[in-house]
Amino acid sequence: MTVTCLTFNPFAENTYLLHDETKECVVVDPGCYDAAEKATLQKFISDNGLKVVKLLNTHCHIDHVLGNKFVADTYGVGLEMHEADLPTLRAIPAYAPSYGFVNYEEQLPAAFLIENDTVTFGNTELKVIFAPGHAPGHVVFYDEQGKHLIGGDVLFHQSIGRTDLPGGDFDTLISSIKTKLFVLPEDVTVYPGHGPSTTIGFEKKNNPFLR
């Protein structure tokens, strides 16, 4: 599996395109909002001959879902997410204008993911791991064969997700990291929702929140 990162919107959110040799592609957390960002996403997909077959959300804070409807409508795919984050998603229209996103369009889920589900595309399998704390329905996607973890806002390079938003809880987040992520091999690459990638081993040794 190849992981491509495109960074969008004022929150510098990492949108991930996961694709393999079959050219099937999964879009995770599309943060593209304006026309230029949508065009950038579309151009990469077109230039590389990719076929979008799935749309996934790790969680549903506004910066991770701005492009949901665009991707769903453009490529004919349904949104898949954890049901516990549905209230997080449904709250967005009320506050989006105050963040400057006056043209936000809501995309509701077509299916819900649960712990230990397997998401398949092409020759790739992703395991769904439930990792709440930053958001009530936060999940991460683990490619065991390639040792890739699409981690959303759980674990960052020498940092962790914030827990002061509605539904966040610091103790729950720390537990999720220690019991769900830190049990993975140390050479697993973590692709977070913001900032650079890191590894499980590096964060075990160097993350100041987890020593």
Share of β-strand residues? 25-35%
With strands numbered from the N-terminus, the spatial order across the biggest sheet is 1-2-3-4-5-6
CATH architecture: 4-Layer Sandwich
- Rg value: 16 Å
Q: What name goes with the CATH superfamily?
A: Ribonuclease Z/Hydroxyacylglutathione hydrolase-like
Task: Report on the architecture of this protein.
The chain is of the alpha/beta class and 211 residues long. It has a single domain (2-206), classed as Metallo-beta-lactamase, Chain A (4-Layer Sandwich). Helix content is 25%, strand content 31%. The protein has 7 helices and 14 strands. The protein has helices at residues 35-47, 62-65, 68-75, 86-90, 92-95, 170-181, 200-206, and strands at 2-8, 13-19, 24-28, 51-56, 79-82, 109-113, 118-121, 124-130, 139-143, 148-152, 155-156, 159-160, 189-192, 198-199. The strands form 3 sheets. It has a 6-stranded mixed sheet, with helices on one face. A 6-stranded mixed sheet has the order 7-8-9-10-13-14. A two-stranded antiparallel sheet has the order 11-12. The protein is globular and about 45 Å long. The relative contact order is 0.15. The model has no long low-confidence stretch (mean pLDDT 98).
Please provide a brief summary of the model.
This is MBL fold metallo-hydrolase. This protein is of the alpha/beta class.
Which secondary structure elements does this structure contain, and how are they paired or packed?
Elements: E1 2-8, E2 13-19, E3 24-28, H1 35-47, E4 51-56, H2 62-65, H3 68-75, E5 79-82, H4 86-90, H5 92-95, E6 109-113, E7 118-121, E8 124-130, E9 139-143, E10 148-152, E11 155-156, E12 159-160, H6 170-181, E13 189-192, E14 198-199, H7 200-206
Parallel strand pairs: 3-4, 4-5, 5-6, 10-13
Antiparallel strand pairs: 1-2, 2-3, 7-8, 8-9, 9-10, 11-12, 13-14
